[in-house]
Amino acid sequence: MSTVTWITARGLFGRRRFLLLLPLPLVLLGLAVLCRSLGVDPGQWGPPVLVGLGLAVVLPVVALIIGTGVLGAEIDDGTVVHILTKPLPRWQIVLPKLAVAAGVTAVTVAVPLYVAGVLADSVRLGLALAVAAALGALAYSALFLALSLVTRRPVLLGLVYVLIWEGLLGNFVSGTKVLSIQQYVIALADRIAPTGLLETSVSVPVASVMTALVSVGFTVLAIDRLRSFSVAGETS
Amino acid sequence: MSTLSLTGVSRWYGNVVAVNDISMALGPGVTGLLGPNGAGKTTLLHMMAGFLAPSRGTVTLDDEPTWRNPDVYRRLGLVSEREAVQGFLTAYEFVLASAKLHRLPDPAAAARRAIDLVELESAQDRRIGTYSKGMRQRARVAAALVHDPQVLLLDEPFNGMDPRQRLHMMQLLHTLGDAGRTILFSSHILEEVEQVSGTVQVMVAGRLAASGDFRTIRRLMTNRPHVFAVRSTDDRALAVALIAEASVSGVELDPTGLTVRAGDYGAFTRALPRIALNKGIRVRQLVPSDESLESVFSYLVEA
After folding, report:
1. Given an 8 Å threshold on Cβ–Cβ distance, is B46 in contact with A230?
2. Dihedral (CA of B256, B261, B265, B271) sign
3. A121, A197 in Cβ contact below 8 A?
4. Domains and CATH numbers, chain B
5. Domain tally, chain A
6. Which stretches are transmembrane (chain A) (predicted)?
7. B13, B42, B101: best mutation site toward chain A, by most A Cβ within 10 Å?
8. Which of A89, A115, A162, B116 is deepest in the core (most CB within 10 A)?
9. A85 and chain B in contact, CB less than 8 A
10. Which residues contact B274 (CB under 8 A, 6 or more apart)?
């Protein structure tokens, strides 16, 4: 494990903020188990729990907490200077941090989604949701990591993207769905395990290409921004 | 041996000019960067350390720019003012992580050497979060020294240190400077600079007001009368004789002795023995009372 990975992971799990990650996946898991044990028809609870809660809220919010935490928290408290005063090419800082963010997000979200998918339909749906969520975790993490370098309010902007753009505008202005990671994740999951529970609005090729573009594009942006990282003086 | 060069460096934030057209070259030895709060010291240090792009001008370390060039950190160490450390690490882990990030051949040995240098061995296995301010500062210095950099920049390194720790840090900076390292530290506390370094760069309102040895700077300020405290066997008679001297612009007599203001440093110091000899007065004490960095500094700030 690289030293940057080690410090990032220690920093992530060493902060109380990490505890924020637990409730959402637990609620998702709890609701799925509850509906199943009460014998509710999966067609009734599947879409709101799997998509409405799992893919539209749990995945992006967990990704937001972690993605803005791996670098943003260090920028906030100033410890980022320790890593930056090393003769490391900046990609060697961004990539390990992205890997930690995407990895932790994927594990945190994919496990409850897998269980919920199995309870709603089949192991295949569970796997499909887990894989699609992992890909989504990568795209979201790249986005939020880059956000923490281009703005001082990454959490706020991230929430605006998740809640306003993906959540609200997506319902009224169908065009915004083409730029919605959530829609890519739904399309990819539905491609792996076609069921009636997932309603797709972008095609699979668009979803695949856009997921890759978002992941790579924002990673490149983050590396470039980190190269020109400025520490604000007293006067600013 | 490394040289840090600044050529016509300015930095502004919107309409506010934080650093205004500064040129300097820092070679081996200890240099103090002095100035009141808000003079632009931190901005200047950040530009030297590659954490801020100059709005105009260039900052180079051995002819390589420091901005957008992580390679300079092989030769440069920075101890920033913000005392941010990963509190969840022990000092040893923290310094070791630095050594590993520098890809040193034997990180463990380098970490132990650096911790040894700042005398933190006894506490090295405790979490930094439990440290006092001064100890945290030393842990940060150890991390900045772990790769034995040619150039070390420290922003207000004595903040929060107790007198013993200050003394130790001053000795450490001296040792490094004597060993041919280029050390620059900023401070707004004059005694610190005075004790650690004779060479100063004085910043006032974003400009470089003076640079060099502060005693020399003082002597060059000819428009300011030099003040001397003189004690002799007959202060009153000496005062009468001195006021007739062209180089003397004023004499004050008080119970502890004379305060003499002289316009010309050289002429006065040559005249005094001659006058005393002629009058048969024995001079017991002659002390330039405004050659301290403090008075040099206040003159520069007022000017």
Report:
1. yes
2. negative
3. yes
4. 4-213 (3.40.50.300), 221-302 (3.30.70.100)
5. 1
6. 49-73, 94-115, 127-147, 154-173, 202-223
7. B101
8. A162
9. yes
10. none
